[in-house]
Amino acid sequence: MTAATHSTLFPQVPESADAVLDGLDPEQREVALALAGPVCVLAGAGTGKTRAITHRIAYGVRAGILQPTTVLAVTFTNRAAGEMRGRLRQLGATGVQARTFHSAALRQLQYFWPKAVGGALPRLVERKVQLVAEAAARCGVRLDRNELRDTTSEIEWAKVTQTVPADYPAAVAKTQRDAPRDPAELSQIYAMYEQLKRDRSVIDFEDVLLLTVGILQDRHDIAEHVRTQYQHFVVDEYQDVSPLQQRLLDLWLGDRDNLCVVGDASQTIYSFTGATPDHLLNFRTRHPNATVVKLVRDYRSTPQVVHLANGLLSQASGRAAEHRLELVSQREKGPEPSYTEYADEPAEAEGTARRIRDLIAAGVPAGEIAVLYRVNSQSEVYEQALADAGVPYQLRGAERFFDRAEVREAGVALRGAARAGGNDSLLDGAEGLPSEVRAVLSTKGWTSKPPNGSGAVRDRWESLAALVRLAEDFEQAKPGATLSDLVAELDERAAAQHAPTVQGVTLASLHSAKGLEWDAAFLVGLTEGMMPIAYAKTDEQVEEERRLLYVGVTRARFHLSLSWALSRSPGGRGGRRPTRFLNGLRPGSTAFGPRGGAGGGGGIDRGSATGTGSGGSGAAARPRRRGPVLCRVCGQTLTEAGEMKLMRCEDCPSDMDEGLYERLRQWRADRAKEIGQPAYCVFTDKTLMAIAERVPDTEGELVVIAGVGNRKLTRFGADVLDICAGRTLEPEPGAGDDDV
After folding, report:
1. Which of 140, 431, 572, 727 is deepest in the core (most CB within 10 A)?
2. 593 — pLDDT class (breaks 50, 70, 90)
3. Are 695 and 657 in contact, with CB atoms under 8 Å apart?
4. 246 near 233, Cβ under 8 Å?
């Protein structure tokens, strides 16, 4: 049994202190036995850090070395704190306090406030947005909901970095932070927000830390009371500690050094919230006599996944990279990571959905599969692709695309403009569907240039930009389409995705995936501009993006897929490049400079929605086209997606059987109604035209038509071949005359 073996649902409490150590590997055992003085545990992804520190606490308690009520373990989320308490209870170490920084500080503040200040503790404002809105209004600044969220986040960052309002503009300049608004304006709002809190005798969550720090600094008697209570400290995820949290920790400790910290500088991905790995990296400088233990045995991922993770960090630069950990997998060999290049984003989403469906068919539970992307706005195309493939899914850390407030508001605005038609002044001068959509959505926050920063305003813009792109693609697929047609399309898409919540494939951003793991992880959209994100400008910001990709890679236990698309939409100019972070790591690429080229070939699959990819499984796919696609009439090279599907230029004469095309369209409408999905989910118009032109006689002739493929051949092939042959379709069981 390895150290990674998961405990049963109701494990037996170890019979003795020594039994607590059973099953630990040598390094984890060293952590458990290091109970005196400062201890620094450098723990890579999947190396069992929580196991090591909980067994350390439990061994100390069970051996009588630590008194449980004198131990305080702190981490960053309620989920992590709850997991730690649960594990300690299973190990027989009850009575140990495991809390977040905020909950530990709030408990102390509530207890000592009457003695230190007098009276009751001021009311805690759990949602500070309304107060920030009032502060902005008093400064003559009008903020919408998303701007409010970004401004609130900026105030929180300033407070946890111990930056007062007057110093905020200088702090932004020094850190090269991409502020969501003019720093001088934000400084005024911040100052007014603090004034309003004082006037109303309320505090926020950051004040909980600040006030606790203030009391412990000013009242030595209270500080000594706390230090008498807590004599041993454990801090998990130490790379995420902010300057304010470190200050509080120093005051808890006083002149003692019974501190154990656990972290990994290579997983620092929250610097925008004030987190910094400096405290972890400086630990041995501050505590020269510290015991340092490195956990590098990876129990989570296969050697193939670990090899890629190590390769990512081997190309990193900066201080965190100097302290990187070389992981060593403890698992059996698994499949190689697959690298797939797609022509466009819809093809990438469809190909990903097909691979997921194949994994589920092979026995991988849907709940053990994740699709991870850089920003939440990327989810929509994957929601659609999974819904089309009949694969259940759930979103983590974000609302479903069509449930987002800005998307709902945009839908209302587009519906109103469609109803008004030419009477809507917004549409004056707008020519064509995309132009009309841009005009309407410009009233909801869409602009031709993305906003600064990476907060809620940017998220809102990305959602609206996704609707603009959808309008562009829709017009390309249906020339002459109107706003009313687009609104109907949006309604169909939304209806197809509003299924009851089910346990299924997880769709999540890379940030929200931290701390989680799956049997299979699909990392998608890995192109320059998205990974690293376009607004990562400084070297340190780019390196944090590399660490974010490292976190994504290390979420996979067994199957790992990495993919990118050369263009946004079908038929688009394929000018995108795969992320620089994979240069020299993916087959056929070269480790050039930071923006060096990346050759294709090697083991990279040229993916399609219907073909299998590198490392994939499934039925034999139609042969992939290599080289240019030529018109079957005039022989010219085809570049447009619709032309390539028809295998001829739009202007070349068509030999399509019009009657067959209409019969196919009627059949498609009936089938779409039966399965409760939009018509295009059966076959697109272009695919039906291609079928009507080529009139296939066999499955082999049908499957090679673009847009058919093995899955739709299995589902619809028999019907299509019967229609092409002029045969009457047999009615579906139970689909005869209606009962009366």
Report:
1. 572
2. very low
3. yes
4. no
- Residue identified by tokens 């929601």 is 383
- Secondary structure class of 706 (helix, strand, coil): coil
Predicted local distance difference test score (pLDDT) of residue 17: 83
Q: Mean pLDDT for the chain?
A: 83
| Tens-digit pLDDT profile for residues 376-413 | 888 888 988 887 888 878 777 655 677 778 888 888 88
Is the pLDDT higher at 640 or at 560?
Answer: 560
Q: Which residue, chain included where needed, has tokens 């606490």? A: 57
Burial class of residue 638 in the structure, from the number of CB atoms within 10 Å of its CB (0-12 exposed, 13-18 middle, 19+ buried): buried
Assess contact for 475 and 433: CB atoms under 8 A: yes
What is d(CA 437, CA 425) in angstroms, rounded to the nearest whole number?
A: 13
For 545-575, the three-class secondary structure string (H helix, E strand, C coil) is: HHHHHHHHHCCEEEEEEEEEEEECCCCCCCC
Exposure letters 356-389 (e unless 16+ CB within 10 A, then b) = bbbbbeeebebebbbbbbbbbbbbbbbbbbbbbb
Residues in the chain: 740
DSSP-based three-state secondary structure for 630: strand
HSE of 290 in the Cβ direction (CA atoms, 13 Å)? 24
Hey, which residues does 329 pair with through a beta bridge? 298
| Paired tokens of 426 | 């917004």
